Amino acid sequence: MFIPFLPPERPVILIFDGHASHLNFATVKEAIKHDVIILKLPSNSMHVLQPLDVGVYGPVKTAWENILVWFAQQNLGMPLNKELFPSLLKSLWQSNCFSAGNIKAGFKRCGVMPWDPTQIPPSVYELSGSSTSNADVLSVPSTSSADVPSSSTDDPPSLL
């Protein structure tokens, strides 16, 4: 569980993709106990609403494709084998895809931090089949929203 690694400030938001295997009663119970809000994202919206999908995994996919194209151009007809794979993976790791800037940008573009629901077009929610709300809150701690300090920085929330 990630709770021991959280800072003392509460509440904390845990963004949840909605897959049933990622959540159980014990997790919800612990979340309530530790003032953690579990936010369920609408189905089929991860590519738009999940900060790491938006800020990191997209750039990683593009960089990896570019590395593979470069490899293929430099090594016509040569297969990518187990001996060569680590060096290409090292190139990916050394790219700026995993930078703090990309991670922060993902949270910002998803409207998570700073909070900005206008970042996501309404059509995203229509596609997900969600007709009542933009996301389902599974666990709401007793802290009122008035007690939550506002942040003027672009730092992402402390999730993990």
- Tell me the β content: 5-15%
Largest sheet: 3 strands, mixed
Number of strands: 3
Average pLDDT metric: 78
Give the % helix: 40-55%
Elements, N to C (H/E): EHEHHHHHE
- Termini separation comes to 9 Å
What is the tally of helical segments?
6
Descriptive report:
- Residues 139-160 have a biased composition (Low complexity).
- This is DDE-1 domain-containing protein.
- Residues 8-65 form the DDE-1 domain.
- This protein has 160 residues and is mainly α.
- Helices cover 40% and strands 9% of the residues.
- It has two domains: 8-50 and 110-147, no CATH class; 54-98, no CATH class.
- It contains six helices and three strands; from the N terminus they run E-H-E-H-H-H-H-H-E.
- Helix 1 links the parallel strand 1 (12-16) and strand 2.
- The chain is elongated.
Short recap of the structure:
Pfam families: DDE_1. Helices cover 40% and strands 9% of the residues. By secondary structure, the chain is mainly alpha-helical.
Outline the secondary-structure elements.
Layout: E1 12-16, H1 25-33, E2 36-40, H2 46-49, H3 51-74, H4 85-94, H5 100-109, H6 122-128, E3 136-139
Helix pairs in contact: 3-4, 3-5
Biased composition (Low complexity): 139-160
Organism: Acanthosepion pharaonis
Protein name: DDE-1 domain-containing protein
